[in-house]
């Protein structure tokens, strides 16, 4: 095992910030959830059933998929130049998935019941069933894979097979998550057979953004990076990322225009989305990041912008699909007015904090910068 | 989440246990056995089977129709109410309000027993600081006050005001005699002038019946509905809904319906034609319809009569002098000459805003699609010209011969009750017969020259007169089933009066009157008490229903009838003997039921026991019928016995002339007073005629505050489930919204959902605006449900108190409070 | 085995909401938690606006999308054609609420529509999310009957505690028949204009089958493929003709 120089980045600071975020978010969230249960959420049967905690889940679960994709470039597809961030990405794919699950668990009515009820009753035609299975399987495979590479086994056939299996389950899981939305013909804002692809594409973007961000955080600056890392960060990574992001921006643009153009009942949500400043903030963040990536400048900032932009995108997708109430008549207005509650925001803070703490601990304990010994 | 909640609920449980029972008081349990050992008392257990369920026949209390209900009680808990299948009004069915009964019974804000006030200061924001007392102390306190007043010769200064209480066991036997025995003209002032006296007087002035009508909808082919929300609030609501399903869904031919109102409501929406009329102008519309009926020769000649030469001489704008021979009506030609000849559809279009061609169409349909009924309620008569509007509308029934006809309308027969346990006339002392109260006017100046000569009651005038010391000041007032501090026009005037007098409230609920009360004698709620109720006008034939307690009172409450009897027993002199004979409500009911022995009901009810078992006694048919201008009486087989003109006058058309009077002799009896007080043209003051309504206030919008379908006799405001369904047509589900037209919103610069300020001469309230095309551009609609400043945890401070900005103006003839005649202005709040 | 279904005659429906309040009473629903709701729609302009309404229970679909998406099979279809929720299996993921085209499902733990929250006034113990004194005696979590525990989804169950006790082989549960009245769903039993009928759709001689045939009963949103077992009689129009498109529902 080649040991790279320990990064000089602000790992401790991130750890402290993450811990602080975790303590604050958990304290507030638990206090509110204990006293009021899910009435601490602003979700309701009249409209938005899946609120911000589900947005968190979708965001982080897909980020996990994206990170697995990034790590696979080296480990499965043999692009050796990507090795310096591979272990970090594998670790982070586990951490982000845990962060997503944590948010979802606090959103579910009976998270512990889920553990036995899904396997024992498996509804084979439910996308959620398969999504749960695939993400659960990935969690196991991801842990196995990480243990392998942590112990220096990067390239044994078993290690490779585990890696391939992990990649496949992550793609299936992310795709299933897309299908959970895309199969909903009664909600035209979501409906479409390309939604799984859209999810995987955007997953890759957030995966790449996290990969880039934590790599920066690990070393603090490009100067502090080992050569291999620096060349990746100044070459293949931003280039590939820019290409990916550019295509994704186009896809988002077309989705939006199609939504605005169509007269179908339910798609008027797009009018509301576009009328919101958040849509334009998202556009500015993503286009700005694309430009920075092309310039290969301020990459940490670019990755933060991508993370922010896609968080908005996830929010608009998950919430937007529910804003038009189904058969609620005069009881509710044309579109649901939904703003996440403090408790819901605390779950977002919690999920991000889990990622920060998880990454920092990993950085401290598992030498995430390791690359295979050639 | 579940696991977290489990933890917390366990922790809470421990806290509650430690704190004793106080914290758990919100959860009430009857814990008592069922009435008469009917119900099986076992420990509550999951998935209880039907064997433990007892069904009690009772009667609903959510509207005056009083449907028979089946009350389901399992293990001492009432959990379901359905219509009594054997009850002719309910027929096993329910309206939306019927199912609210359990919430009322288990209302957590109910009073738990009698109490007295300990805070001498009174006001909205003064905590009365009630302390529990015994019933004995409560009765004696009231009796002492009454006795003291009587000793001073001031018994008239004791008043008892009531709302929806009727039936022999509260007003018939216990309340009315109290006025006579004790000696006060103010015992038994009802709320009818705030209810619907406008229609009662309109009928009294024309056909001589001081009553609401009974209707034979099922055989009618045309309904013309003015200001009565047939599918949301008109009674008997449950039966109206049943009728609607039949006449619109099954009957051949389908009954056609035209409905007139000031905003699009469910009745208008479900009708064939909706006429959105300018408020207060229903009479103009009816007059124009009458005009068309006459000019086009569509009147019922067999009932009304005809010109001697058989030609139609009614020509618009031209008086008639050709002789007209009237049969069952009086004054048609004269009416034409003084009024109708100029009431053309074109004229009415200018007054009502309804296009003339629609008026003509409606008139033709109404007069040619017989049997046809013109019916009306508060929307049409809650104005200064209310009686005139009502008379004009009711005259349409005469013109098309619907009175007492199959498919027409008639009046209600009373039940075959046995005599009460005691006769008050045998217990009158000298004071009762000759005391100073005999010379006293009623506090509401009903029947007084300075007040309202024709009115039945003038409850809304009480605070005004009291505060003005005219005719005098009250000393002690008692309330039963009415809360005028909330529901009266200019409601806040009551607060000033009640601060000055000793107030006894008998409501089981903490309403505004209770906040002002010195003594609380809580009634048992309707599922806990005995009571009877002869039917509200329904289909004419007699019907009497009985309320049997489904469970014993949850708390230390007493049926109002028994409270009154107990007070009566403590009044000095022979009054106490009378009430001792009454003994209690159940005893009265047993006596009343004796009448059924000789006159068993169609369902076999012939005793108290069978009455309780079936919940209702009734005896079809209605005894009289008009067929093509001839009247017949039921002879046991059919309407075969021809009636003489005298029979008709005695039983049906109870006017001086024994006919339907377009020219009202009833008004003519007080001709000078009417002309002096109303300024009406002496030539037409006693004919149905058009008079501009005198609107109160000076704003640009008519303020209309209708009753919604979910209004369960004053209690819905504190029933969360009712609140959530209160205003479905425009989506008011946490409170009611003010319905305003988009043009108003645009002009005043507010949007749907904005809070707006509604200003009248009396003050202002705020409400959430619902900008909707359902409402006329000159009207703002705000249902009266909310705006309580007491009344329970859910009612308090929800919505706006509409009656605080409605001026106290009444129709000088009927005394009907003009709830819907105010004009207001609105602005963004 | 019967395939229970409902027929609602929109020409007779008066929009009174007695179905909603009867359901709330029978099934102990929270304010706003209308298993059976009536929806109202406004279109047009003065002086000719239209006001329409549309009563909407659970459609108890032949192909229920809610059931297909439920990862734990907590939502299931009984042999007699009723879509139910097993509260012991429900994990509260709310995917069924997302997937139901008719918007008829409710999650237990939400902000109260009406404050103060009645669940806090009549507290439950967790197995019952609240426990009012007027609670009905029936409690059957396996069939989603009674008051739901915390953290689960609930919905109209066609008053399963009633209909499941009906004598076998009955063509229609007709409330006017004293022998059957106790087995009739609350909304059907109370419906004053008699706009509702409940019976066996598989029995061609049932009244519901007869009405669907005679009056061209149609189903709401048939294009979703859910195939409701609730049919509407519309006097000729398509089911949901009372339900305007959402785009035309713009407020001024």
TrEMBL record, chain A:
Pfam family, one: NrfD
Keyword Transmembrane: yes
Topology of the protein relative to the lipid bilayer: Multi-pass membrane protein
Keywords recorded for this protein, A-Z: Cell membrane, Membrane, Transmembrane, Transmembrane helix
Transmembrane regions: 12-34, 54-77, 89-108, 128-144, 164-185, 197-219, 240-261, 273-294, 301-325, 345-362
Top-level taxon in the UniProt lineage: Bacteria
Gene3D superfamilies in UniProt: Formate dehydrogenase/DMSO reductase domain
Localization per Swiss-Prot or TrEMBL: Cell membrane
UniProt family annotation: Belongs to the NrfD family.
Protein name: Polysulfide reductase
Lineage of source species: Bacteria, Pseudomonadati, Pseudomonadota, Betaproteobacteria, Rhodocyclales
Automatic annotation (TrEMBL), chain B:
Gene3D superfamilies: 2.40.40.20, 3.40.50.740, ADC-like domains, Dimethylsulfoxide Reductase, domain 2, Formate dehydrogenase/DMSO reductase
Keywords: 4Fe-4S, Iron, Iron-sulfur, Metal-binding, Molybdenum, Oxidoreductase, Signal
UniProt cofactor(s): Mo-bis(molybdopterin guanine dinucleotide)
Record Pfam families: Molybdop_Fe4S4, Molybdopterin, Molydop_binding
PROSITE patterns per UniProt: 4FE4S_MOW_BIS_MGD, MOLYBDOPTERIN_PROK_3, TAT
Domain 4Fe-4S Mo/W bis-MGD-type: start-end pairs: 53-109
Keyword Cytoplasm applies: no
Key word 4Fe-4S present: yes
Protein family: Belongs to the prokaryotic molybdopterin-containing oxidoreductase family.
Protein name: Molybdopterin-dependent oxidoreductase
């Amino acid at each position: 095992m080649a040991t790279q120089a320990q990064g000089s980045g602000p790992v401790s600071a991130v750890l402290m910030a993450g811990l602080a975020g975790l303590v604050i978010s958990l304290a507030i969230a638990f206090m509110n959830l204990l006293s009021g249960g899910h009435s601490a959420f602003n979700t309701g049967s009249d409209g938005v059933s899946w609120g911000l905690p589900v947005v968190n889940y979708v965001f982080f679960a897909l980020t996990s998929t994206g990170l697995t994709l990034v790590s696979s470039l080296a480990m499965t597809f043999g692009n050796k130049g990507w090795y310096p961030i591979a272990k970090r990405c594998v670790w982070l794919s586990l951490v982000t998935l845990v962060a997503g699950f944590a948010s979802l668990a606090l959103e579910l009515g009976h998270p512990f019941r889920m553990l036995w009820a899904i396997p024992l009753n498996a509804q084979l035609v439910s996308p959620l069933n398969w999504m749960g299975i695939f993400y659960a399987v990935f969690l196991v495979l991801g842990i196995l894979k990480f243990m392998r590479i942590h112990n220096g086994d990067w390239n044994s056939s078993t290690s490779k097979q585990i890696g391939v299996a992990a990649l496949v389950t992550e793609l299936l899981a992310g795709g299933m998550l897309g299908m959970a939305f895309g199969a909903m013909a009664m909600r035209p804002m979501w409906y479409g057979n390309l939604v799984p692809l859209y999810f995987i594409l955007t997953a890759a973007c957030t995966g790449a953004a996290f990969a880039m961000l934590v790599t920066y955080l690990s070393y603090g600056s490009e100067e502090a990076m080992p050569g291999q890392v620096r060349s990746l960060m100044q070459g293949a990574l931003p280039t590939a990322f820019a290409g990916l992001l550019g295509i994704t921006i186009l896809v988002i643009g077309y989705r939006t225009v199609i939504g605005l153009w169509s007269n179908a009942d339910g798609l008027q949500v797009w009018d509301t989305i576009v009328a919101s400043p958040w849509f334009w903030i998202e556009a500015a963040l993503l286009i700005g990041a694309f430009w920075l990536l092309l310039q290969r400048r301020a990459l940490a900032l670019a990755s933060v912008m991508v993370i922010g932009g896609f968080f908005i995108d996830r929010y608009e997708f998950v919430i937007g699909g529910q804003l038009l109430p189904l058969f609620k008549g005069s009881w509710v207005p044309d579109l649901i007015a939904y703003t996440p509650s403090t408790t819901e925001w605390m779950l977002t803070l919690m999920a991000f904090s889990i990622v920060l703490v998880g990454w920092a601990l990993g950085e401290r304990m598992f030498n995430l910068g390791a690359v295979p010994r050639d | 989440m579940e696991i977290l909640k489990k933890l917390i609920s366990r922790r809470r449980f421990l806290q509650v246990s430690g704190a004793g029972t106080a914290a758990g008081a919100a959860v009430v349990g009857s814990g008592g056995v069922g009435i008469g050992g009917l119900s099986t008392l076992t420990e509550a257990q999951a998935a209880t089977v039907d064997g433990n369920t007892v069904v009690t026949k009772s009667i609903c209390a959510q509207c005056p129709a009083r449907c028979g209900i089946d009350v389901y009680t399992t293990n001492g808990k009432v959990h379901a109410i359905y219509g009594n299948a054997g009850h002719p009004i309910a027929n096993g069915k329910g309206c939306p309000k019927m199912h609210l009964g359990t919430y009322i019974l288990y209302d957590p804000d109910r009073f738990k027993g009698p109490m007295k006030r300990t805070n001498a200061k009174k006001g909205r924001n003064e905590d009365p600081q009630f302390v529990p007392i015994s019933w004995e102390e409560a009765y004696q306190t009231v009796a002492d006050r009454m006795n003291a007043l009587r000793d001073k010769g001031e018994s008239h200064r004791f008043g008892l005001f009531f709302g929806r209480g009727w039936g022999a066991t509260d007003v018939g036997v216990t309340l009315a005699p109290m006025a006579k025995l004790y000696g006060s003209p103010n015992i038994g002032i009802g709320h009818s002038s705030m209810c619907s006296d406008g229609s009662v007087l309109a009928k009294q002035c024309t056909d001589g019946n001081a009553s609401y009508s009974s209707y034979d909808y099922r055989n009618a082919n045309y309904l013309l509905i003015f200001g009565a929300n047939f599918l949301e609030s008109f009674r008997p609501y449950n039966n109206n809904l049943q009728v609607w399903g039949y006449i619109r869904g099954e009957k051949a031919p389908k009954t056609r319906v035209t409905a007139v109102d000031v905003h699009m409501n469910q009745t208008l929406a479900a009708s064939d034609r909706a006429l959105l009329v300018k408020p207060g102008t229903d009479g103009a519309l009816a007059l124009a319809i009458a005009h068309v009926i006459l000019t086009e020769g569509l009147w019922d000649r067999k009932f009304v009569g005809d010109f001697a030469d058989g030609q139609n001489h009614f020509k618009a704008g031209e008086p008639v002098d050709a002789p007209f021979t009237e049969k069952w009506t009086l004054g048609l030609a004269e009416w034409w000459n003084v009024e109708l000849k100029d009431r053309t559809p074109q004229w009415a279009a200018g007054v009502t805003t309804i296009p003339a061609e629609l008026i003509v169409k409606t008139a033709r349909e109404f007069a040619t699609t017989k049997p046809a009924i013109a019916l009306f309620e508060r929307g049409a008569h809650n104005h200064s010209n209310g009686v005139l509007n009502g008379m004009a509308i009711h005259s349409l029934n005469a013109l098309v011969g619907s009175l007492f006809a199959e498919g027409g309308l008639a009046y209600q027969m009373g039940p075959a009750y046995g005599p009460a346990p005691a006769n008050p006339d045998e217990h009158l002392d000298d004071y009762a017969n000759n005391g100073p109260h005999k010379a006293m006017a009623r506090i509401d100046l009903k029947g007084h020259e300075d007040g309202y000569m024709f009115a039945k009651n003038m409850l809304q005038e009480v605070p005004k007169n009291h505060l003005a010391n005219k005719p005098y000041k009250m000393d002690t007032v008692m309330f039963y089933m009415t809360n005028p501090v909330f529901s009266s026009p200019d409601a806040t005037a009551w607060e000033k009066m009640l601060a000055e007098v000793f107030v006894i409230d008998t409501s089981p609920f903490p309403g505004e009157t209770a906040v002002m009360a010195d003594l609380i004698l809580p009634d048992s709620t309707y599922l806990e008490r005995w009571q009877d109720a002869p039917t509200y006008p329904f289909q004419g034939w007699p019907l009497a229903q009985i309320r049997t307690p489904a469970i014993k009172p949850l708390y230390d409450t007493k049926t109002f009838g028994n409270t009154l009897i107990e007070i009566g027993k403590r009044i000095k002199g022979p009054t106490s003997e009378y009430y001792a004979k009454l003994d209690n409500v159940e005893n009265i009911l047993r006596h009343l039921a004796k009448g059924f022995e000789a006159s068993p009901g169609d369902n076999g009810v012939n005793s108290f026991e069978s009455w309780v078992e079936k919940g209702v006694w009734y005896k079809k048919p209605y005894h009289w019928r008009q067929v093509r201008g001839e009247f017949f009486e039921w002879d046991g087989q059919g309407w075969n016995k021809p009636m003489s003109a005298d029979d008709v006058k005695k039983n049906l058309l109870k006017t001086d002339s024994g006919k339907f009077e377009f020219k009202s002799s009833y008004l003519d009896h007080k001709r000078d007073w009417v002309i002096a007080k109303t300024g009406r043209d002496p030539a037409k003051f006693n004919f149905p005629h058009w008079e501009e309504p005198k609107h109160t206030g000076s704003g640009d919008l008519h303020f209309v505050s209708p009753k919604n379908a979910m209004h369960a006799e004053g209690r819905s405001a504190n029933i969360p489930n009712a609140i959530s369904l209160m205003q479905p047509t425009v989506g008011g589900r946490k409170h009611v919204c003010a319905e305003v037209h988009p043009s108003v919103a645009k002009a005043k610069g507010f949007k749907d959902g904005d809070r707006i300020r509604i200003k009248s001469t009396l003050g202002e309230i705020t409400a959430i605006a619902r900008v909707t095309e359902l409402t006329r551009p000159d009207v703002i609609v705000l249902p009266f449900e909310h705006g309580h400043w007491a009344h329970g945890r859910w009612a308090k401070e929800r919505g706006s108190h509409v009656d605080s900005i409605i001026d106290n103006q009444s129709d000088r003839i009927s005394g009907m409070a003009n709830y819907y005649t105010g004009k207001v202005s609105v602005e963004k709040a | 085995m019967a395939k229970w279904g409902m027929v609602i005659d929109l020409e007779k429906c008066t929009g009174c909401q007695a179905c909603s309040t009867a359901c709330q009473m029978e099934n102990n629903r929270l304010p706003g938690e209308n298993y059976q709701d009536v929806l109202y729609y406004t279109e047009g302009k003065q002086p000719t606006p239209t006001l329409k309404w549309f009563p909407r229970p659970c459609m108890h679909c032949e192909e229920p999308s809610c059931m297909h998406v439920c990862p734990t099979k907590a939502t299931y279809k009984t042999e007699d054609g009723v879509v139910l929720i097993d509260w012991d299996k429900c994990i509260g993921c709310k995917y069924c609420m997302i997937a139901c085209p008719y918007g008829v499902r409710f999650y237990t733990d939400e902000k109260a529509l009406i404050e103060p929250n009645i669940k806090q006034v009549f507290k439950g113990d967790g197995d019952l999310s609240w426990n009012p004194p007027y609670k009905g005696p029936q409690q059957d979590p396996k069939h989603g009957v009674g008051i739901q525990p915390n953290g689960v989804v609930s919905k109209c169950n066609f008053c399963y505690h009633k209909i499941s006790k009906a004598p076998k082989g009955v063509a229609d549960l007709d409330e006017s028949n004293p022998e059957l009245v106790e087995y009739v769903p609350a909304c059907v039993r109370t419906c004053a204009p008699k706009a509702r009928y409940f019976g066996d759709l598989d029995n061609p001689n049932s009244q519901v089958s007869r009405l669907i045939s005679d009056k061209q009963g149609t189903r709401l949103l048939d294009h979703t493929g859910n195939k409701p077992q609730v049919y509407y009689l519309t006097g000729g129009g398509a089911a949901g003709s009372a339900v305007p498109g959402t785009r035309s529902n713009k407020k001024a």
